[in-house]
Specification:
Blueprint: E1 15-17, E2 20-22, E3 27-28, H1 43-52, E4 58-59
Parallel strand pairs: 3-4
Antiparallel strand pairs: 1-2
Length: 78
């Protein structure tokens, strides 16, 4: 089996996705990090995504709960 290196991979090549011109094909998938305190995104959440962003990259931010019971897990604040 031939060894594949980063230089051989299309992972780091540009990609056009509709009106988005991405500089590479690495995408950050949405995750629930629970950094939106009381359901309100704040500076910590902005910093989290800023640290993971790249010029011409694509990341999908986490969803937010639309009601206190929407997260699907117990919270003492309810």
């Amino acid at each position: 089996m031939a060894e594949t290196t980063a230089n051989d991979s299309r992972l780091f090549t540009p990609y056009n996705m509709g009106k988005f011109n991405l500089s590479h094909r690495v995408v950050l998938a949405p995750m629930t990090r629970c950094r939106a305190l009381n359901g309100i995104p704040g500076p910590a959440l902005a910093t989290y995504y800023q640290q993971r962003s790249t010029p011409g990259g694509f990341l999908i931010s986490e969803g937010t709960a639309v009601s206190p019971t929407a997260p699907g897990y117990f919270r003492n604040s309810i």
